[in-house]
Design a protein that fits this description.
Layout: H1 5-22, H2 27-36, H3 41-65, H4 71-94, H5 97-109, E1 129-132, H6 151-156, E2 159-164, E3 169-174, H7 178-195, H8 200-209, H9 215-240, H10 245-265, H11 271-296
Antiparallel strand pairs: 1-3, 2-3
């Protein structure tokens, strides 16, 4: 049964909510849904890129206001993701559609790398320090880490803090390995442009495991970054003629509404629940795309 504009709008709202809470982005869920209902995978990917822009704008505004997302870190990483997105979108316009199903599933499998890190945000592995009962507006400067940050980290000021409402603690952090992290984000941009999914899972993984950023801050900053990445990829799909505005318009509206709702509740949910939700969503998406790929051979 094909998706009409109203049904796609209604589906997009909860999808945007889930995408915002997990850091995946709504398109990661919408693309498999559209494929399930018979939309060609390349058209689904191109339309999904537009919804990513809207979703990122909706949730990122809330995260910046609540001081969870770090704009300086986001702007640095966007340089790498935008270049990757243009390259990835160009590849999609040239390859056979069947390969995209398997690439989609394989890429999502890499999202589980995020759980190799320490489970707590306050551990040494994240370089995060929590201060109990600090007020949300307190502008505490982050303390110096055990080892002095590199020159690039100092020049770009890749550090910050945010108030975790669920834990009632202010968490401070300092990004590590900025060059290696940038290369990882470039690969995330490549996948984002190629698959139209925002690559939020991989971006969160890079931020947590290479840059050593706390989970909530990584998720919030990922939502900020995916919009610019998607804009770069959309330019390629627009020129190629794959972009279907009839699909893109309701997706953009629905995912934006869901993302705004997700941005308002993210900081009030425990990390354990967010991790469980992330795993459940990713497993379902992987199974869906593998099935579609096998049946398309």
């Amino acid at each position: 049964m094909p998706l009409d504009m109203l049904s796609l709008l209604l589906i997009s709202v909860p999808v945007g909510l889930l995408g915002s809470l997990t850091g995946l982005g709504g398109a990661s869920i919408l693309v498999p849904v559209m494929v399930l209902f018979g939309v060609p995978v390349k058209a689904a990917i191109a339309s999904g890129m537009v919804s990513i822009i809207a979703t990122s704008s909706g949730s990122a505004a809330v995260y910046v206001k609540e001081e969870i997302a770090n704009v300086k870190v986001a702007m640095y990483l966007e340089m790498f993701t935008s270049v990757g997105a243009i390259a990835g979108a160009t590849i999609t316009t040239l390859i056979a559609p069947v390969f995209l199903y398997f690439f989609f599933a394989l890429f999502l499998m890499t999202s589980f790398l995020r759980f190799k890190r320490s489970k707590g945000e306050g551990g040494d592995s994240t370089r995060a320090i929590a201060v109990a009962d600090a007020p949300p507006g307190q502008a505490d400067a982050p303390p110096a880490p055990a080892s002095a940050p590199s020159g690039l980290i100092r020049r770009l000021d890749l550090r910050g803090s945010y108030y975790d409402a669920a834990r009632r603690e202010r968490v401070r952090y300092v990004a590590t390995h900025p060059l290696l992290g940038g290369l990882g984000m470039g690969l995330a941009g490549l996948a984002a442009g190629m698959l139209g999914i925002g690559a939020g899972a991989f971006k969160v993984t890079v931020q947590e495991n290479i840059l050593k950023l706390p989970s909530k801050m990584a998720s919030a900053t990922s939502n900020f970054i995916v919009g610019m990445t998607a804009l770069a990829g959309t330019s390629v799909y627009l020129k190629s003629g794959l972009l279907n505005l009839t699909l893109a318009a309701p997706m953009a509206i629905g995912t934006t509404l869901g993302a705004i709702a997700g941005g308002r509740v993210l900081n009030r949910l425990p990390d354990r629940l967010l991790r469980a939700l992330f795993i459940a969503v990713v497993v379902i998406l992987i199974a869906q795309m593998l099935y579609k790929g096998v049946t398309s051979l």
